[in-house]
């Protein structure tokens, strides 16, 4: 209790951190062609007033933008391909 503060997407905190999330969304869109409907980030603010992205807490991809990949199971030691999920 009291170890964190949760902000809705409003106010100066959201304004300061939303640009970082928008940059991540842009990078992934340009390099992978994947589009997000939602992206949730976990930030901390240091003593200097800088916001740091700790991790991505959640995301929701647009179904029409998810490319198909060839997946290999981590326990699969051979070179055979695994059917996409």
Folded structure, characterized:
With 85 residues, the protein is of the alpha+beta class. It has one domain (1-85). It has one helix and two strands. A two-stranded antiparallel ribbon has the order 1-2. Strand 1 and strand 2 (51-61) form a beta hairpin. The protein is elongated and about 45 Å long.
Determine the strand fraction and express it as a percent band: 15-25%
Radius of gyration: 18 Å
Q: Shape, please?
A: elongated
Q: How would a crystallographer describe the biggest sheet?
A: 2 strands, antiparallel
Average pLDDT confidence is 77
Which strands sit side by side, in order, in the main sheet?
A: 1-2
Number of strands: 2
Helical region count?
Answer: 1
Distance between the termini: 39 Å
Q: Helix amount, in percent? A: 25-40%
Count of spatially separate domains? 1
Quickly give the structural class.
alpha+beta
SSE sequence, one letter per element: HEE
Low-confidence stretches: none
Q: Gist?
A:
The chain is built from one helix and two strands. By secondary structure, the protein is an alpha+beta fold.
């Amino acid at each position: 209790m009291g170890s964190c503060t949760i902000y809705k997407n409003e106010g100066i905190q959201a304004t300061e951190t939303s640009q970082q999330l928008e940059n991540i969304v842009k990078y992934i869109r340009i390099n992978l062609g994947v589009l997000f409907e939602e992206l949730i980030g976990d930030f901390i603010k240091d003593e200097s007033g800088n916001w740091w992205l700790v991790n991505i807490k959640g995301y929701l991809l647009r179904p029409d933008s998810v490319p198909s990949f060839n997946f290999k199971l981590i326990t699969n030691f051979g070179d055979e391909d695994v059917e996409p999920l």
